[in-house]
Amino acid sequence: MSAEATNPLSAVESADADVVVRRRGRPRIDLRRLGRAALLGATAGPAPRDRLPDAISHVADAHRAHHPEADLTVLRRAYVLAESSHRGQFRKSGEPYITHPLAVTLILAELGAETTTLTASLLHDTVEDTEVTLDQVRREFGAEVAHLVDGVTKVEKIDYGAAAEPETFRKMLVATGSDVRVMSIKLADRLHNMRTLGVMRPEKQARIAKVTRDVLIPLAERLGVQALKTELEDLVFAILHPEEYETTRALIAGNPGAADELGAVAEQAAVVLREAGIGAEVLVRPRHFVSVHRVRLKRGELRGCDFGRLLVLVAEDADCYAVLGELHTCFTPVISEFKDFIAAPKFNLYQSLHTAIAAPDGTVAEVLIRTHRMHKVAEAGVVALGNPHVGQVSTEQSGTPAVLGEHAERVDPTRPGWLSRLLDWQQSAPDPDTFWTSLRADLAEDDEITVFRADGSTPGTISLPAGASCVDAAYAQHGDAAHACLGARVNGRLAPLSTVLGDGDTVQLLLAQDGASGPSPEWLDHARTPAARIAITGWLEAHPEGAPLATAEPRPQVSIAADRRSGAELHVDLDGEPPSAVRPAGCCTPVPPDAITGFRVRGRSVTVHRTGCSAVDAMRRLGREPLPVSWGDAAQGRVTLVAESFGRPGLLADLTEAIAAAGAAVVSANVEPPTEQRVRHTYTLHLPDATELAALMRAMRGVPGVYDVSRARHRTPGEPRGA
Fold first, then answer.
1. 485 pairs with which residues across the strands?
2. How many Cα atoms occupy the beta-carbon half-sphere of 162 within 13 Å?
3. Catalytic: which of 129, 244, 563, 644?
4. Is 129 part of the annotated catalytic residue set?
5. Of 54, 61, 128, 244, catalytic
6. Using only C-alpha atoms, what is the Rg of the chain?
7. How far apart are CA 43 and CA 228, in angstroms?
């Protein structure tokens, strides 16, 4: 069921020379009439070459509305093949099967899809459900059409069993990576199936609706096909949340005056724009059911104008801002509702100005302002962008499918980072369950950020989901080489890998030069992208911890220099093969005579922590067994200290002098920019005698302006700075 078809904001139209105020409506296809036309066409023989069969005339009319010069001959040939191959097949609803590809093709034609897409749409089930082969499609309609048909053809369930559905989506997404029109056909296919889902058993309806909700609707959002996304949302809403759907339906039906209230504001806005000399269309745009439901949850009791929005369409980008200025001048603007998606488009190509205005009588209406081109892209997304092939004659111009050359390049006209990421990580997820789970998690991320690479390499940006950390950036940039990542610089400052990145941050990843390094399990706590999680999990599974061997023999004690530069010595008692390295943990930088404990990590390496370090509890929760470790005779060591102080001239020189007077050597130092007249200094120091650490910290606290000195450690998420 379509939201527009059931919305009481009925179509009313009025116009003047410059400004048009009207309601939106979308024609619906009559499946039974199509079925009768298809059967009549089958019994009456092929249609004359100079006209299309009656059953496809709807598609032809919709297509010619967007592409007046298109050659419809290929559509006729595709329809004849589809009708003849599906002849005798019926849907569960009782209609001839040919009504389904016809309905799917009409959906795409109404969105403005070019001829090649419509040709493939008519044939999209022939290879899967009839005797037609992919080679036959390629011979008769070309490589492009064959690629699109193959992309939406399901894999054989007899070959894949329970994995057939995830593997079908994997195949479809890979095909979408080289031609986004594959996904356009799949979305239209699912929309028509959802419209006719009522004949299925309730449990099957729910299963299909959940996959639609978790996978297809997010894909429609990312490809910008709002016209399909909104109707899919309503159909899923009705199946999975019938009580809330009925409540929303009753709310809409119980507010018949909403159209008049919005229409009155639209008329006032039209007068303002006409008097300002701005040519525009002012449309009353009803909200679909899910949108009304969300507004009700957000605002509680709904007002008349909450059931729709005003849509203002203009010719040029500059006119959008002119309309905004006039509306904000002549009405009271609700500033908190203003958003500029023209200057900063969404990652799915969406562009529009959003605002809200209050009329003199207090009525508040939300307003969308965009050009006609922006509106077409907002509704149809990638469907409106036509042929994604480079260096070929556009089907939009010629009306016939282009034949792919041997070196023809397929490109994604949206260049979305999410699709590139998806295609990368799916190669590392051979297990269907891992792929299916990761796909749903990836698509659940609503927002995207862009970070810049500090090394000047190409490409200079990395696209990541909102909330991604340096761990995600490392795997997005370096792939499996990110296993050796030691840290990062974010906006020029050293930062732990757990740092959450923001839009526009500059990131430099620091990699170890040896190939023995690997990720720790804690990285999984900070990884948001499937690519990072799959890579980390794979490495950890390939490098399991050595199981302790039961033996009556005394365990050999192994002594290894934990830091060759400092000479600090650690003893660790282990069964079997000695560790490859024993290192003090960077999170708490233990030095003699700290109480310490060790844990085996990264295969045969051992990391040593102070016993009070928060990482010790984390290790125990992960089931790690602590190892007995102790300091050797060497008393020297390396430690990282953080000095918190009030800013003043000469502070750095005084702190450095106090450190030198205590006999410590500065290995590295970092001073963060002042924040509210407070400065943070981070020093890595070499101590000839680690037992003098307490005296050194007292000396640093004695420097005027310094109010705290502490050992460096990682902060947990949400922990206040300096805690």
1. 511
2. 4
3. 129
4. yes
5. 128
6. 32
7. 34
Residue 150 has pLDDT above 80, yes or no: yes
- Over residues 68-114, the pLDDT tens digits come to 988 889 999 999 999 999 988 988 888 889 989 999 999 999 888 98
**pLDDT > 60? residue 564:** no
- The residue written with tokens 């992309």 in the block is 151
For the four alpha carbons of 86, 91, 96 and 100, in that order, the dihedral sign comes to negative
Rounded distance between C-alpha atoms, residue 151 and residue 121, angstroms: 11
- Given this model, what pLDDT does residue 78 score? 92
Q: Which of 356, 361, 422, 515 is nearest to 177 (CA)?
A: 422
* SS percent in the chain: helix, strand, coil, step 5: 45, 20, 35
The residue with tokens 């899967």 is: 128
DSSP string, 187-198: HHHHHHHHHTGG
DSSP characters for 470-536? HHHHHHHHHGGGGGGEEEEEETTEEE-TTPBP-TT-EEEEEE-SSTT----GGGGGT--SHHHHHHH
Global pTM reads 0.61
**pLDDT of 189 higher than 70:** yes
Tokens of 413: 């006209």
Estimate to the nearest angstrom the gap between the alpha carbon of 278 and the chain centroid. Answer: 37
The closest of 87, 103, 111 to 55, measured between CA atoms, is 103
Phi, psi of 519 (to 5 degrees): -75, 155
pLDDT on residue 387: 56
pLDDT greater at residue 20 or residue 335 = 335
